[in-house]
Amino acid sequence: ISSVRAEKLSELSAQYEGRLNKALAEPVEALLDAAGDDTWPAIRKLLQKETRAAVSGLSSALSAYELDQETVDKMLLKLENYAKSVVESKAKEEAGRVLIRMKDRFSTLFSRDADSMPRVWTGKEDIRSITKTARSASMKLLSVMAAVRLDDESDNIEKTISRALGDNTNANSGVTDRSIQSFDPLASSSWDEVPIERTLITPVQCKSLWRQFKAETEYTVTQAIAAQATFSNCSLLTPVF
């Protein structure tokens, strides 16, 4: 009888774990894909909501088995930990695709206007400004993906990345802030005040990814500049009747 009950309890746990996986995996992926300031708060809210529902459901189901409280508590805690592991696993998976996500975001923002229409490079567009905006959005994605943030603890990852990799040119002097820094904040394998178990992308990996990202998106910018030049030349050569 005990073996049959153990099997039933195992099936019950698996059932609720399956529900949690379905409720969390795809939504978390979508939230990370749209990475922004509210990404991790939204993920935490989703995790709390779905975990609460699953724990409540399993708790009710277990009441039919006349289990001692310690056993019930262990099973519920296991379910809570499983929910966290689903989010952490999905975040780790998405971090492995961060370069692709960054390039996709850059391409979308650079090649399409505010109405999502393809840009036509006529010479009126400020390519420098458009490039900066698209790169900033890609940098935001990198900072969001750099660590798991399920404990609502603040960190300086975004500031560190922005300071090290952002366009910090001083308009008056033409000198970048980075050129006068005495150290490279990304020359490290860990983030300040971020436990290694929460780290998805280390500082030095961020630096390498950003270098690769810029190299692989540079051609898109060059093409746009060339298209503007071609349009301008054609306009000059067009006869006026």
Automatic annotation (TrEMBL):
InterPro entries the record matches: RHD3/Sey1, Sey1/RHD3-like_3HB
Sey1/RHD3-like three-helix bundle domain location: 1-224
GO biological process, one term: endoplasmic reticulum membrane fusion
Gene Ontology molecular function terms on file: GTPase activity
Family matches, as Pfam families: Sey1_3HB
GO CC list: endoplasmic reticulum
Name of the featured protein: Protein ROOT HAIR DEFECTIVE 3
Lineage of producing organism: Eukaryota, Viridiplantae, Streptophyta, Embryophyta, Tracheophyta
